[in-house]
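SAMPLE LOG
Freezer: B-3
Tube label: C17
Construct: single chain, 660 aa
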Amino acid sequence: MAKPVSRILVINDEHLVLREFVKGLNAAARTLDNPLGITFSGVTTAKEALAAIESDGDLQSVLVDDTLYTLSKNGGSNSRKKLQMSALELVQRITRLRPELDVYVLIAQEKEDDVVDALFAEAVDGYFYREERDYRGIYRILNAQIQERARTPFYDQLKNYVWMAKDQWHTPGHSSGESLRGSPWVNDFYDFMGEHVFDADLSVSVKMLDSLMEPTGVIAEAQTIAAKAFGARRTFFATNGTSTANKVIFQTLLAPGEKLLLDRNCHKSVHHGVVLSGGHPIYLDSSINAKYSLYGPVPKKTILSAIRRHPDAQAIILTSCTYDGLRYELAPIVEAAHAKGIKVIVDEAWYGFARFHPAFRPTALEAGADYATQSTHKVLSAFSQASMIHVNDPGFNEHLFRENFNMHTSTSPQYSMIASLDVARKQAVMEGYKLLARTLALSRELRAQINSTGVFRVLDLDQLLPEEVRRDNILLDPTKVTVDISSCGYTVEDLQRELFDRYNIQVEKSTFNTLTLLLTIGTTRSKVSRLYDALMRIAREGRTPRRLYRFPEIPGFTRLRYLPRDAFYCGGELVPLVDEKDHIRRDLLDRACADQIVPYPPGIPVLVPGQIITREIAHYLAGLLRSQKRVELHGIVYDGYLPCLRVLKPAEERGLRRIG
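STRUCTURE (predicted):
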């Protein structure tokens, strides 16, 4: 099994002092317990230090001299020292580059008060006296700090309990797999999954494993460590995915009837959260790249205008980055919202790794957001459904949040899922920078290789950006690779089938003329090579390009007549979309929809509960149903073969309060 390597960088401008320090610390590492593979190296300049920190993903700690001088270039007896860079500035630059690193400072004892006052406002973990040369003591502290950062309190406790091998007189019913082991009918499931899956599938009956609903032990400890890692005041583990995380925040911040500004292109959980909270949504239409059927960010001017027009809104939620990797410039949006007292929520489901490499920052929290939700399972090493809620809201109402959290959280959470969040955080902190640097390098290689096929083409930021947001300082997450397939001679469905059946490749998603590939910290060069080989072989077939069916452009949002919650909870009635002659039913027009109608892909609601159905919307839905290309239409109800929409009855409408 691979063993960890942990390098610690010492920065001191005097060569002899530096050499003595590095030698003494390495001697201590060799003679004392060293489970993390700690070694020390040194540099004499801030420039060298920053270069080493940027290039070495195995660096875990930095030991900075409080003054960094260099000889002037005059030479001779008049040579004098000049300050290279203050320790304060260097610490700030290290923290901006890699906030996960432990930073310690070497100081002179007589300057202790001045240095400590100046530096401890920064992210400094401690200090040592330069003159003492207590190498064994310094090593022990640095080793302990790295081990503290590498701890997984919940996972460790879960393992401890499993090794105790207690007899179970509590849930779950499989009792460590005993109900399956040896069964002639289901033993194969036990063998396939492995014994530890069942050993670690426990319940709240085991008090030493804490409670997700009221954590006071190892779960609380794991969440505290995660908050520090991700730059949050508080972090909460969620085992129902980011879908539930968004709903919990909505119900915490919104009372029925209170306004929420939201991207119409946000995840469907946001729209469901509007129904559950009773909020009054102000929908903001996304930008659209019609050429590739891609939906981008909301234009900045639209967002800022909505903030000005609705200063009474309680919150705004945006998705950054989008499914296709487009990132907002969040700081000015956050500033404008906070100026009106509006809370900012950012759905970072696809961007949970961003804290751990400067190429992806600033994160939403670093840009000032009050809440960020992340699908740790999507882009880090947690199990499916495992997510995190990060809170930086200075007015955070913990009691109300906890009540809403517990409303959605199972009283029987999956403990392996919680452990995977603990482990995913550890990996992100200890080797996330190195893994993400590798992922970025593989992304660059893959893009060049795909473009070299001469048939497939990776879309760059300029090609992805809709016209409306070209001046909004939108950035692209390079781990999302969108490939134009329109010249390959296959439809997108046939190409996906060819990749799956012949080359054993499954892609993330598609539009009518693009494939989206997702690179993660688990992407390897071998996978990149196999994908390139498959695309090159397909390109060499020399097929004639086919005419590809383009989705009709989704109609703009019309207007809400009633709050989504009020409309959804009405019984309603089913009205067919078309009659027997396939004509749009006139009695459907100007009715209030009771459901969310979502064509998938792309997953943007055409209608939400309480929204008015127009002729344009009805024709759009009918067009999708008539299309040769199969599109899922969530929310459509079939009466036999007749597609119907659930709409409010006139009597129900008379009992509701209109909002528009």
